[in-house]
């Protein structure tokens, strides 16, 4: 009953988020009627996901056969949830997928493509004027923060590479690597030449 | 000429809460209760169960094994909590019938579902659980949530549900039952007979209906008795799951 309650809470939050994306629910409608079973091996847990036009229904048990069953340890499931290259994770040896894998990949794609219209949600509570002001303010803050972070990163890299000389700079490293590559090629050529001369000497003798 | 008073005396009685009433009067008295509480039924469910009724119903849906295209009968469906979920699962190729003997509850349920955009694969039928107006072997799943204890002849209702189920179909009975822990039973009794009528008085201005609710729960068969009744009616593989310490139990049986 505790797990049922927990899943009910997660489901409500998830469906609220899905409603903030104008395309998610119509795309989920296409998966309506499908049952996806997720079996976590360590710790042993089972979760059933039922997509529909209303969102996702999560269940701790489902007394009907699943269309697709994903079995994996918790770490792989987490990696699958966070990774953009989901197919690569699904091909790992500890992950097994039975049934119609297209259902799972389609669901993962929908969740990955989510673009939440959070301004709409805020406007329901604060109204359009306050939302525009707040959204503009937040957006400028986010821009400032991201520019600040990029600038800090650049300055730090310049300081470490150019001023304190603690690290080798990217361009300097690239030049050294290019020289090493040239040297390696020259060495290969020399080796081939020596080999050719040795074999020519042997045949003369 | 027969004496009507004598005829009434000879009529078998049944319980209506803690009272004994002639069988012919129980349905009418139950109907009065639900006419009275229909408007605030959902609110009272949330207040009295602390929202737990939603989890009990979720568990029922999980155990139902309903699939796309299935035909589902939700008896005593009331305000349509289960019907709404079933409607989404069975999809446009399936069908859900919300049946209730009480027209007030049915109207509240119908309006609520329509307001939420649930339409197309849902039908509303005013029907008596003892005499279901459906063909034999018609439904994949039949559910009755918090309704069986109000039925006058429970055995007849169970047989009627068996009749309308397809072979292999499932009946799910979600109903109040008997707590397993004596301490919990004591707390639950105090809660039922003190808080429930008081909440009924404060919210719906009707304490009697909620006194009946508490009494009818005590008169309802316990887990093992209901299981035996389902087996007697012809169900197979009958199992039950206690929830919230046995305050509520979900019985599940399969039609052979």
TrEMBL record, chain A:
One of its GO terms (biological process) is ubiquinone biosynthetic process. Residues 173-200 form a coiled coil. Pathway: Cofactor biosynthesis; ubiquinone biosynthesis. It holds the Pfam family SCP2. The keyword Transcription does not apply. PANTHER family: UBIQUINONE BIOSYNTHESIS ACCESSORY FACTOR UBIJ (PTHR38693:SF1), UBIQUINONE BIOSYNTHESIS PROTEIN UBIJ (PTHR38693). Required for ubiquinone (coenzyme Q) biosynthesis. Binds hydrophobic ubiquinone biosynthetic intermediates via its SCP2 domain and is essential for the stability of the Ubi complex. May constitute a docking platform where Ubi enzymes assemble and access their SCP2-bound polyprenyl substrates. This is Ubiquinone biosynthesis accessory factor UbiJ.
From TrEMBL, chain B:
Belongs to the class I-like SAM-binding methyltransferase superfamily. MenG/UbiE family. The keyword Thylakoid does not apply. GO terms for biological process: aerobic respiration; menaquinone biosynthetic process; methylation. This is Ubiquinone/menaquinone biosynthesis C-methyltransferase UbiE. PANTHER family: 2-METHOXY-6-POLYPRENYL-1,4-BENZOQUINOL METHYLASE, MITOCHONDRIAL, METHYLTRANSFERASE. It comes from Ectopseudomonas oleovorans (Pseudomonas oleovorans). InterPro entries: SAM-dependent_MTases_sf (IPR029063), UbiE/COQ5_MeTrFase (IPR004033), UbiE/COQ5_MeTrFase_CS (IPR023576). The gene is ubiE_2. The keyword Hydrolase does not apply. S-adenosyl-L-methionine binds at residues 79, 100, 128-129. Methyltransferase required for the conversion of demethylmenaquinol (DMKH2) to menaquinol (MKH2) and the conversion of 2-polyprenyl-6-methoxy-1,4-benzoquinol (DDMQH2) to 2-polyprenyl-3-methyl-6-methoxy-1,4-benzoquinol (DMQH2). It is an enzyme of class 2 (transferase). Keywords: Menaquinone biosynthesis, Methyltransferase, S-adenosyl-L-methionine, Transferase, Ubiquinone, Ubiquinone biosynthesis. Pathway: Cofactor biosynthesis; ubiquinone biosynthesis; Quinol/quinone metabolism; menaquinone biosynthesis; menaquinol from 1,4-dihydroxy-2-naphthoate: step 2/2.
